[in-house]
Amino acid sequence: MTTRAASRPVGTATRGTTNPNRLRRMDRWIAAAHGAELRRSPAPLAVDLGYGAAPWTAVELLRRLRSAAPRTRVVGIEIDPARVAAAQPYAQDGLDFRHGGFEVPVPGRPALIRAANVLRQYDEEEVAAVWRRLCARLAPADPATGSRGGLLVEGTCDEIGRRHVWVALGPEGPRTVTFATRLGSLERPSDLAERLPKALIHRNVTGEPVHAFLRDFDRAWASAAPYASYGARQRWIRTVRALAGDWPVADTAGRWRQGEVTVAWQALAPRGWTPASAPAPPSAA
């Protein structure tokens, strides 16, 4: 019994909701932000963790990453064995599917783990421990080559991929938070609050940094209203440029044009959050 329990995947099954192109904004950001790191590796491995009831997101991840790093391989991992079996007809050169969970059952250390819409069903108190477990599986940094190591991208989006928020983490922990949207669907930046990842969604209250950030984002958006006559993209760029005067925006206008803004994690981290305070990683149940 002990051996069987120890071999069980770590985590619980998600609802499995997925749609083609749902994660396109996240994928394109990964290819742009992490493409050089993938190219540096002789055999880069990416993991689509919890891809859901259909394998579309893993298939699309392979295509988008190979546009930046042609040697990239992708492994889709699902905790539900029936979903793994259903995905097998979509396996191809550079893409396969495996049964597993947060233990990430692949050989070696992945250059990328993408966990989209996976942690929404967990309690906030569990998130830091899951992050630690997944970050421990990433390829390590290598100062000799300038490598910063692997990347974990964990976040949430709506059902058709119009609005995303994700956290990017390296082996050392959280680095940045990215907000991305289809600009034509946006009334105000704080509309993205409903897609905050689990580590932040309950912290959108007075006194928390993420609440102050979204408040300032809305104010900058309102101030940039005259630019709306030039289109939503120009209004967004003007808004982010103003926001960067008070917040550590980590990207440039080239990404802003895509309807994105990336901010240093330390500026938005919940009050009292520290990696050391996280509980032990969850065990199989």
Q: Key features?
A:
alpha/beta, Rossmann fold, eight-stranded mixed β-sheet, 33% helix, disordered N terminus, 285 residues, globular, disordered C terminus, methyltransferase activity, 10 helices
Major beta sheet, strand line-up: 3-2-1-4-5-6-7-8
Beta-strand portion reads: 15-25%
CATH architecture: 3-Layer(aba) Sandwich
According to CATH, what is the class? Answer: Alpha Beta
Helical segment count? 10
Region (Disordered): 1-20
Keywords: Methyltransferase, Transferase
GO molecular function: methyltransferase activity
Protein name: Class I SAM-dependent methyltransferase
Walkthrough of the structure:
- One of its GO terms (molecular function) is methyltransferase activity.
- One of its GO terms (biological process) is methylation.
- Residues 1-20 are annotated as: Disordered.
- This is Class I SAM-dependent methyltransferase.
- The protein is α/β, with parallel strands linked by helices and 285 residues long.
- The chain has a single domain, classed as Rossmann fold (3-Layer(aba) Sandwich), CATH 3.40.50.
- The chain has helices spanning 2-7, 24-40, 56-68, 81-87, 124-135, 198-201, 209-223, 232-243, 253-256, 265-268; strands spanning 45-49, 73-78, 95-99, 112-116, 151-157, 163-170, 173-181, 260-264.
- Strand 5 (151-157) and strand 6 (163-170) form a beta hairpin.
- Helix 7 packs across helix 8.
